[in-house]
Amino acid sequence: MADNLLQRLGGFLQRRPWYELPRLLAMPRLVELRNTLRQKNLHDTEEPPFAKQDIPPDLDPALRDERTLEGTHNDLHSPKMGSVGARFGRNFPLEHVFPKTADLLTPSPRVVSRDLMTREEFKPATVLNLMAASWIQFMVHDWFVHKTAPPTDGIEIPLAPGDDWASPPMTVGRSIPDAAPQGSTRPPAYMNQNSHWWDASQVYGTERALAARLRSGEGGKLKVDASGLL
Question: Which of 45, 102, 129, 161 is the most buried (most CB within 10 A)?
Fold first, then answer.
């Protein structure tokens, strides 16, 4: 009920960006944006979909106020959403994401990469520095890690004659789809081995045993060696 009311109020505030609104007005605008993204830009791949449930009256306060290592209870109405072992969602309607295996390498990813990324001369990026790429890669490891097939079952990318790839053939790892229920008519989906949230799980881990090895147990700090490194 509260979310619906805030969403309706947010609809009246669409003429200005949320960050230009007073705080009390920005909050319902953010709720409205979140709900719209969930409805139109996030498509559930679970089979069956996670059921929305009531919040238990005796819910552990820690689950309400703190993050869990496994990524559960970020949404108290759907505790497993985005947790370790849950399938990664899609940003497109599922009917549009069936793989076209026959066209997987058309056009060649190598050709696309070289055409888009090759620089004959230095082109400075005036709004970024070299940290941007490494930071994005670091964040990607926070959001998802899928099961991968052995290197021998990778996807071989064709190389044009004279290609300077250092060690042909070029092989890319293949993600392993999550097992589908019998009779499934949905496209392949992929189970996530860490939490889906922006919660630094690539630093703190998603298992209690690993977290115990990493944490000092004092002041929320991680263990470091004599040089001050993790």
Answer: 45
187 band by pLDDT with thresholds 50, 70 and 90: very high
CA atoms of 129 and 138, how far apart (whole Å):
15
Q: How far is CA 84 from CA 16, 31, 205, in A?
A: 37, 25, 11
Of the listed ranges 27-31, 91-95, 136-140, the one predicted with least confidence: 27-31
With a cut of 90, say whether residue 151 has pLDDT above it: no
Distance (Å, rounded) from C-alpha 71 to C-alpha 93? 24
State the Cα–Cα distance between residues 45 and 77, nearest whole angstrom.
17
Instruction: Report the predicted TM-score, pTM, of the whole model to 2 decimal places.
Output: 0.79
What is the bridge-based pairing of β-strands 170-172 and 155-157? antiparallel
* Contact of 70 with 195, CB cutoff 8 Å: yes
Q: How many Cβ atoms are within 10 Å of 59's Cβ, its own excluded?
A: 12
Alpha carbons 144 and 201: distance in angstroms, whole number: 10
**ω before 188 within 30° of 0 (cis)?**
no
